[in-house]
Amino acid sequence: MSFSALVLFVQLAKALRFHCDGDFICEIWHWNPTEQGALVLEQIPITHGAIELHNFLATEISSNLFAYFEAQRRNILEMHTTITVIGSTLRGFVVEDNATYYNVCLEKTQLNHISFGTRCNLETLKIQHSNLEQLPQSIGNLKALESLTLSHSLIQAIDLNLLAELSRLVLLDLSKNRLHSLYDSCARTTTHPYPLLSELYLGENKLKSINMDVFQPMVSLTRLDLSHNHISVVSGSLVATSLISLDLSYNRLVEMDCCGWVIPKLYGMAINDNRLPALPRCLEHAFQNVTRLTFDTNQLQPDAMFQLGRLTNIELLSLTDNKLTHVPLNESTIPKQLKYLNLGHNNLKRLDVPYVPSKDLHIDVSSNCISKIDWDRVSANLTKLAMEGNPLDCSFYSISTRADIQSRLVCKKHRIERCDS
């Protein structure tokens, strides 16, 4: 019988059951190795290299528990094996020296301590929803590790020096913990301890400040997520010549200094949902190659547009929910490559667009207080305009609809209470 269509369901004990599917994954429920032993693992077809343990009834285990399962697959098929635990009373896990399975995922456990031996083959480690209070001291033993996810834990501080020996690490996800401190206890000058680290996720923690110098040794970093923290202070200089995406949204920034930053490949920058009354210092130098920039939900004033106009490569710019009362859209404020400009949810009273660089530009001024338009001061290049939620709605999305609105004066008028004050 072909295992691609095989579904096994074996009742080995009153509560114990498992089944193996065509995706070469075997799911096991309610296994208590102390009472039932490891016989269940011997029933798994040799073609299946992934185990998912649901409601795993153990508190302390060693990787030796899976030695027979793993050795068979390594010796016969050179298979990359995976151990996943989803829901368990598990508190302690020891990965022994020379452990040869490649992927371990521990989710929704009571894990509060885990240790790693030497010469392990582990490439992917995920620990989600645990009681860990610190990064395991022996994590540096996992020389083959390429992806590390440690989220939804009780960890409050991370010393990046503990990860400095992981030379193959590509992805590091430390989001959704309780981090209030991120530092490197080793002062580095020329060495690059994270040569391949490309993606770093630190979102949804409790960081109040961040020193950008800690990222300088990460020479391959392309994505950095610091969103959904409590950051009010950004210090140091972000020197990341491979970085393409930076997210600082949903923090508490009131000012920001980007002088000294070196981010030549950055194309996406999000600083929305902060408290900035002014744009970061040295913005036009640091963000000269950025193509997507969002400053929604800050406290920016109208003069911010003159700085943004110098960012000649910007294609998408969003400034919704700021303190913009009048924005002259001209050659000094609209970047030449701009394709989408969102000024919605501000307090604009009139629309003044004498300059539009191309007919591809879509301008959104929805939910403002615009009550009049002087068509003689609206560029003929403007072919896409969103005005919903204004006292005057002259929205159009093509040349023909613009001409129809302009010639027949068929704009819609509304009473907007917030605009009456």
From TrEMBL:
SMART domains: LRR_TYP (SM00369). GO terms for cellular component: extracellular space. It comes from the Eukaryota. Pfam families: LRR_8. InterPro entries: Leu-rich_rpt (IPR001611), Leu-rich_rpt_typical-subtyp (IPR003591), LRR_dom_sf (IPR032675), SLRP (IPR050333). This is Leucine rich immune protein (Coil-less).
